[in-house]
Amino acid sequence: MKPDWEITGKCQICGVIGDPVEHTVSPIMHNAAFKALHLDYVYVPFKVSKQDLRNAVAGMRALNIHGFNVTIPHKVDIIPLLDEIDEFAGKIGSVNVVLNENGQMIGYNTDAHGFLYALLDQGVEPEGQRVAVIGAGGASRSICFALAERGAVLTILNRTPEKAARFATEMSEMTGQPIQVMALNDENLAGALDNAGILINTTSVGMYPQSDESPVKHDLIKPHLTVVDIIYNPFKTRLLLEAERAGARTISGIDMLVWQGALAFEIWTGRKAPVNVMRKEAQRFLKGHEK
Ligand code: ATR
To answer: What is the pLDDT of residue 81?
Structure first.
């Protein structure tokens, strides 16, 4: 009997480049999806240091690797090494997916729309809503861009407000949406959350091993809010646990992870991603490894 999934000489190879990559959930999610659709594809991790990035991309070309994810620390540095950048990824200035189309390496960004799909999938429409975003790093950039483009009204709260101000100005110019910036403190958070419908943590505060931390004091969280954390280890951060207790709706980092992966899958295979399979496998794996 033919097995339901086997790797033949025609196998298309996908993977992820990053450093570190040992913690990645992407091979679990993508191989489960390939298997579910009986596709002759495989997904593997490639640990690539910053100084080896150029050689790694040359190697990807030489080996005819079909497509790959790009993660920390390469999402910006890879841009000049590719042949074409999708317009949306170019505007954000960050590439997390590459497709090798007959030798042409094309860069895409699925982090931004992955985030948006995670909200829409839970029935949360950010258009016209006020959204408070904590943090102004790389992850925040993709998220803010997707939200501003969708018509959300953003307030970014950052520990170093000067850093956020630069990116808010740039993003306002690109999307035509005004973006407010504030220093991250209790008073500003309280004010921003009174008016906001959605609160998003894009910082690493609350990530393992600092799982007992939260970027927001629990008494500032009101039941009318949707609270989103991009952290998925732990599965439910302190912020999300306290938001649940306050009666707010919560969305975990796992949803963004799954949706950015699903959109990448569709770019590589041209097939609709089996999102439920990907979520189930990612959850199973993360629960087994949860700290
Ligand atoms: P990433 O690319 O994962 O978003 P990053 O670019 O290092 O990571 O950005 C981290 C974000 O988390 C920044 O907004 C950072 O605030 P600063 O701009 O002030 O550095 C924020 N951040 C990290 N640790 C934090 C902490 N302990 N308290 C508040 N904000 C923190």
So the answer is: 98
Of all atoms in ligand 1, which is nearest to the CA of residue 159?
19
User: Is the distance from the beta carbon of residue 142 to the nearest atom of ligand 1 less than 6 Å?
Assistant: no
In angstroms, the CA 44 to CA 22 distance is 11
Closest CA to 153 of 124, 132, 136, 182: 132
pLDDT computed for residue 73 by the predictor? 95
Torsion sign, CA atoms 254, 255, 256, 260: positive
Query: Which residues contact residue 232 at a Cβ distance below 8 angstroms, ignoring those fewer than 6 apart?
Result: 25, 252, 253, 254, 257, 286
The single residue of 75, 217, 272, 280 carrying the catalytic annotation is: 75
- From the CB of 71, is ligand 1 less than 6 Å away? no
Q: Which of 121, 167, 162, 163 lies closest to 154, judged by CA?
A: 167
Known catalytic residue: 236?
no
183 in contact with ligand 1, CB cutoff 6 A = no
Residue 163 Cβ inside 6 Å of ligand 1? The answer reads yes
Mutate to test the pocket of ligand 1, among 72, 75, 189, 204 (most ligand atoms within 8 A of CB): 204
Q: Give residue 287's pLDDT.
A: 85
pTM of the model: 0.93
Residues of the chain with pLDDT under 50: none
Structural domains of the chain in order of their starting residue, each with its CATH number: 12-109+255-288 (3.40.50.10860), 112-251 (3.40.50.720)
Contact 232, 253 (CB under 8 A): yes
Are residues 114 and 93 in contact, defined by beta-carbon separation less than 8 angstroms?
A: no
Does 140 contact ligand 1 (Cβ within 6 A)? yes
Ligand 1 atom with minimal separation from the 140 CA: 4
Task: Give CA–CA dist 27/43, Å, rounded.
Answer: 5
